[in-house]
Amino acid sequence: MARGAQSRYVCQSCGASVLRWEGQCRTCGEWNSLVETVVREEPRPRVLAGGATGGGAAPVALSHPTEAGDEPRRAVGIGELDRVLGGGLVAGSVVLLGGEPGIGKSTLLLQAAAGVAGGPGAPMVLYATGEESVSQVRLRAARLELTSGAVGDGIRVVAETGVGRIVDLARAERPGLLVVDSVQTVASEELDGPPGSVGQVREATQRLMELAKGEGVPVILVGHVTKDGTLAGPKTLEHLVDVVLSVEGDRTGGLRLLRATKNRFGSTEEVGVFEMGERGLTEVADPARAFLADHDEPAPGSVVAPVLEGSRPILVEVQALVAPTGAPSPRRTASGVDPNRLALLVAVLGRRAGIGLGSHDVYANLAGGLSVGEPGLDLPLALALASSLRDRPIVTGTVAIGEVGLLGELRAVGGLDRRLREAARLGFARALVPRPRGRELPAIAGLEVVVVGTLRDAVRAAVASQPGDGRERP
Ligand SMILES: [Zn+2]
Predict the structure, then answer these.
(1) Ligand 1 centre from 26 Cα, in Å?
(2) Separation of 335 CA from ligand 1 center, angstroms?
(3) Cα 17 to averaged position of ligand 1 atoms, centre (Å)
(4) How far is the CA of 426 from the centre of ligand 1 (A)?
(5) Is 164 in contact with 1 (CB distance < 8 Å)?
(6) Residue 404: strand pairing partners
(7) N or C, which end of the chain is more exposed by having fewer CB within 10 Å?
């Protein structure tokens, strides 16, 4: 093997190391805990957050002003991406960009590369591809019209999967940005495991971290995410890197949401909204409206919810369909909403609001392929289920937001004022909300705010019980 380095299989549970892979650790008995790891003679300096290496740092008093926020940054030139990054790429930072295959990660990164290569100082960008050939990348760039001028000269593409070679190239060329597409395809010569294995992904990331911290080069790694939403490769990868971004959306639809789930140099409160088109990803002018579906008529099973994505209010349409089941155990299918919350809401609706769904199949999703985890989605989801069961649309122009408790009681959500203002701005006339704790109801021009205490009240206020009831309100 290369360079006199040796690999050992190290137990991730107890730290014991052995020469060959075994299914079970002999020391602690844990299964599948052995990961191939490079063992080096001399310990390397440990790379700490923010690029400091251990050893020389002196303690600093809390009262002393710090340099947080003063990291040298380079704007990528894509407003929504720069915002999610916290104001651009920090020198020496390592960013992991995750998302399902085909969602647009490579497209976004080519556009980011173009922003750097065509930006101030115009440094070159090194784009290492292990997924596609150079000509495939070039073809994609041509579709995005990025192959001519300073940008076309400034982005250098190399088809390479050896992490050692990528690091050597970056040391020699000193790019303003290094893109590695993807971390699952690169491998170290020093390990026997295949690319994408836990040991390889971790070793490759560590080598790129050292490059980033040592040379001040920002590195963006692409990481593919499997259907169930986990990054293919180890969870430890997310702990290693400085920033974790994810691209979400419906591959067949046009909208993409960019989220930061970790950011050492900024907040994780920002989201970016893009639209995928012929010329790549473009920023959406009015993100709050982007995820609303268009209906000519109010449809049963549809409820609009003003959710908060980070600090940004976005209106999403919750859709539910319930139908009598033919099977002994009815289906509960959720997409974009938490399946456990869906099951719980079905139970609470049955026991506390007289909406029995025990003999019905239940399907729920969010329009536009969005995925929302906040508890405030409970109430709109429950109302969508009730509306679908009764086959009556909810009162026109209504939004709803609130958490549902096990007793059918409703709980307030944070940021109510911001959410409702956005709903009013987009033309909604009525909002169903739980009473805010210890605070006054926000008064918003043009918006009737209806306080509901229980799920039963909310269903009564939102879902017309007779045909035509839904149309009588303004
Ligand atoms: Zn062990």
Answers:
(1) 7
(2) 38
(3) 8
(4) 57
(5) no
(6) 410
(7) C
Assigned token pair, 395: 């009162």
Ligand 1 centre and the CA of 32: distance in Å? 10
Question: Which residue carries 């919750």 as its tokens?
Answer: 318
How many angstroms separate the alpha carbon of residue 34 from the centre of ligand 1? Answer: 8
**What's the length of the chain?**
474
Identity of residue 188 = S
Distance from Cα 27 to the centre of ligand 1, integer Å = 5
Q: What is the pLDDT of residue 228?
A: 59
Q: How far is the CA of 10 from the centre of ligand 1 (A)?
A: 8
Q: Measure Cα distances from 101 to 98, 119, 250, 400, 402 in Å.
A: 9, 29, 12, 34, 34
70, 107, 178, 188, 196 from 137: Cα distances, Å: 35, 9, 15, 23, 21
248 CA distance to ligand 1 middle (Å): 36
CA–centroid distance, 189 to ligand 1, in Å, is 26
- Residue 5, CA distances (Å) to 15, 180, 184 in order: 19, 24, 22
Give the count of beta carbons closer than 10 Å to the beta carbon of residue 411. Answer: 16
- Give 33 Cα–ligand 1 centroid separation in angstroms: 7
pLDDT digits (tens, 9 = 90+) for 277-330: 888 899 887 888 888 877 767 889 999 999 998 888 999 999 999 999 988 899
CA 9–ligand 1 middle distance (angstroms)? 10
Lowest mean pLDDT among 117-121, 131-135, 202-206, 237-241: 117-121
Report how far ligand 1's centroid is from the alpha carbon of 36 (Å): 13
CB 4 within 8 A of CB 40: no
pLDDT given for residue 468 in this prediction: 45
What distance in Å separates the CA atoms of residue 401 and residue 382, rounded to the nearest whole number? Answer: 10
Q: What is the pLDDT of residues 221-279, one digit of tens each?
A: 999 886 655 555 556 788 889 999 999 887 777 889 898 989 999 888 888 999 998 88
- Ligand 1 geometric centre to CA of 116 (Å): 45
Nearest of 16, 26, 2 to residue 192 by alpha carbon: 2
Q: What percent of the chain has pLDDT over 90?
A: 55
Q: What pLDDT, in 10s, does the model give residues 387-442?
A: 999 999 998 899 999 999 999 999 999 999 999 999 999 999 999 999 988 778 88
Count CA atoms within 13 Å of residue 312 on its CB side: 22
Single-letter residue type at 274: F
